[in-house]
Amino acid sequence: MAASSVASPLCTWLVAACMSVTCDGDCSTRPSMLSSSKRRPKCAARRRLPSKRSSFSADFQKGLNSAFSGSSIQGLMSSCLAFEPCDEYYSSKGLSSLGSNGLSSLFGSKTGTTNRRQRRFHGAAHSGETMAVAVQPTEERTKQKKPTTRQRRVVVTGMSVVSPLGHDSDVFYNNLLEGVSGISEIEAFDCTQFPTRIGGEIKSFSTDGWVAPKFSRRMDKFMLYMLTAGKKALADGGITEDVMKQIDKAKCGVLIGSAMGGMKVFNDAIEALRVSYKKMNPFCVPFATTNMGSAMLAMDLGWMGPNYSISTACATSNFCILNSANHIIRGEADIMLCGGSDSVMIPIGLGGFVACRALSQRNSDPTKASRPWDINRDGFVMGEGAGVLLLEELEHAKKRGATIYAEFLGGSFTCDAYHMTEPHPDGAGVILCIEKALAQSGVSREDVNYINAHATSTLAGDLKEYNALIHCFGQNPELRVNSTKSMIGHLLGAAGAVEAVAAVQAIRTGWIHPNINLENPDEGVDTKLLVGPKKERLDVKVALSNSFGFGGHNSSVLFAPYK
């Protein structure tokens, strides 16, 4: 039968009414399966069936489900309107015989002169076409499922630090193993007016061969530390100029954060503004932002993959490390430079933390000032520096013959949602963070036998973390816990990355560094879990590194030997 004979007024009315009921009854509660817009077709708005909708609403819902599970317009019309299509529909064998213009003819011919009423039906034709597509069998889509693939593994193939104990990862870790303290009197400025005059200050540092002189003169130290550590991590990972030519730079990214950003550049700009805006560094705004270090490093390398920074106070580095690993796991990157950098060894930085009453005032004996878990601790010691890890997808690393230091297993973040600077009283956020990290990594509690704790040497924080560790791992007799901060102080946003380097070095060397200054453990602290004043031999199965920050940010990351 010709297509035009099928387009009887009754069939046209049936489909239009069916669409009206479908849109009015279904689109208001959830996104429509029949159209990409929530607006009802114009024809549907005029062709409502108020007297019938209330009487067959139950049948309509039941019929609608069956119609969607089927594959024909006949079933949809029958279920929507509770009676069968006209004889002409059957004699035409449904819509299959209508050809490419079938639906168009069902709603009215698209050729010839049209009046306003016909144009309204033409608007409905688009919805009709969409309906015809939506009710096709769904088996084809279910058959085209993506094949299950094994999760991409992430490994550490390079690392570097800029720290009070050295600017090479091996020199840095050897000093840690020997129990050397990097805490000393601050020399960068006159701090005699401050109650705290000590810190983990970097005494000598050079960017020669790593950063162009024009940038060295203008950049904030946190950026200089970041760029230098980032490039050294690349060199440590064997990313030579020849390798750079071969890798896909669109799948190489940089995610190095900072807690404080370019505080000195911004402070200098304020001082210059007191004279005149003409005296301000024209780069003061971009060089003060926390993201610019990652951006400048990517520009230097030509890396066009994921590039941004994260700032979650002293938990910054772990957030950057875990997010970088996730980019690799999702296939968005093959290589990621990640970590953190901070330098606020300036009057406003020192003064700010003094005002918070967070810093140690043991000025007479700087090397004894940072003493995590010791009953005589009186606050943390501010430090500065940077830490960068080179994370890489396993097969990519193996293909280029890279040395694999360790495997990144996973991690987690949580928030205390309690106080700006104080930890949650019962350590709920830290416990949740550790448990989620273990679950996400597929690691059992018994497998973790080394923890590089956040332990900053504050009265409240040390004990809250210790109790959380006992809650999560107390039954593990092999567990050993230490704090890198006892020797270098608290590097703020860089702390997590520098301590991650220490954890990876423990895996590589089989040695864990001591806790110095732990002379009188606080009440309730079991020294059997804590590393003593000397380095210890340990075959690390899984290493966990914690970092927490102002705002209640908690983070835990896990590393293990590559097997």
From TrEMBL:
Residues 37-50 have a biased composition (Basic residues). PROSITE patterns: KS3_1, KS3_2. Residues 151-561 form the Ketosynthase family 3 (KS3) domain. The keyword Cell division does not apply. It holds the Pfam family ketoacyl-synt. InterPro entries: 3-oxoacyl-ACP_synth-2 (IPR017568), Beta-ketoacyl_synthase (IPR000794), Ketoacyl_synth_AS (IPR018201), Ketoacyl_synth_C (IPR014031), Ketoacyl_synth_N (IPR014030), PKS_Beta-ketoAc_synthase_dom (IPR020841), Thiolase-like (IPR016039). Keywords: Acyltransferase, Fatty acid biosynthesis, Fatty acid metabolism, Lipid biosynthesis, Lipid metabolism, Signal, Transferase. Its EC number is 2.3.1.41. Belongs to the thiolase-like superfamily. Beta-ketoacyl-ACP synthases family. This is beta-ketoacyl-[acyl-carrier-protein] synthase I. It comes from Prunus mume.
